[in-house]
Amino acid sequence: MIGAVFGVAAFAWAGWGQENPPGHVAWRVVLGGLSVAGLVLAALSVPIAIRHWRTPTAIDPGGTAFRVYLIVFWLEVIIGAVLAVLAARAGRPDLVAPLILAVVGVHFFALAVVFQQPVLHVAAAVLTMIAILAALLRVEGLSPSFWCAILGAPVFLAIGGWCLAVGKAVLGAA
């Protein structure tokens, strides 16, 4: 399932990066390629997730882990929305993408524990660092969303691809 979610995340972040990439068409092609790779990862992951939908997981609906997941999810949504509004009101809409990526990154620290998936700690640390870098990096004509995309989408693809490969091996899925 992580492969599917991270594939969609790579698609979305690469798309957001199209907001204001460098002028050369090659950057749009790279971002488009990252989007397509995200869709491919999701497309390869979803059938496996569906086939093993009833396989026991780290979270059981109604259990503590599931409640923690729901709390973390809704906190992420609320904090992301509040930060986006505050950035826009402060005249810094350019910071919305790095703020959202930082919230996404930080929320993976909690989800790593909830899902019992230590690899999510790696995603959390790397994505949070990318968000900070994207907010601080000033290159004329480039928006922070470009840096979030060009650096963040490959992280989602790499970790999602690794999770897909490990999941297939563990589940015996072809």
Any overview of this molecule?
This protein is mainly α. It has one domain. It is 76% helix and 0% strand. α2 packs parallel to α6 (144-171) and α5 packs antiparallel against α6. The longest helix is centred in the C-terminal third of the chain and has 28 residues, at 144-171. It is globular and about 50 Å long. The protein starts with a helix and ends with a helix.
Determine the oligomeric state from the structure.
single chain
Q: What summary fits the major beta sheet?
A: none
Secondary structure tally: strands: 0
Mean pLDDT: 91
> Regions with pLDDT < 50 over 5+ consecutive residues?
none
How many discrete structural domains?
A: 1
Share of helical residues: over 70%
Strand content: under 5%
| Rg on CA atoms, Å | 17 Å
Please sum up the structure shown.
The chain has 174 residues and is an all-alpha fold.
Keyword list:
single chain, 174 residues, mainly alpha, 6 helices, 0% strand, globular
Secondary-structure map with pairings?
Elements: H1 2-16, H2 25-51, H3 64-89, H4 96-114, H5 119-136, H6 144-171
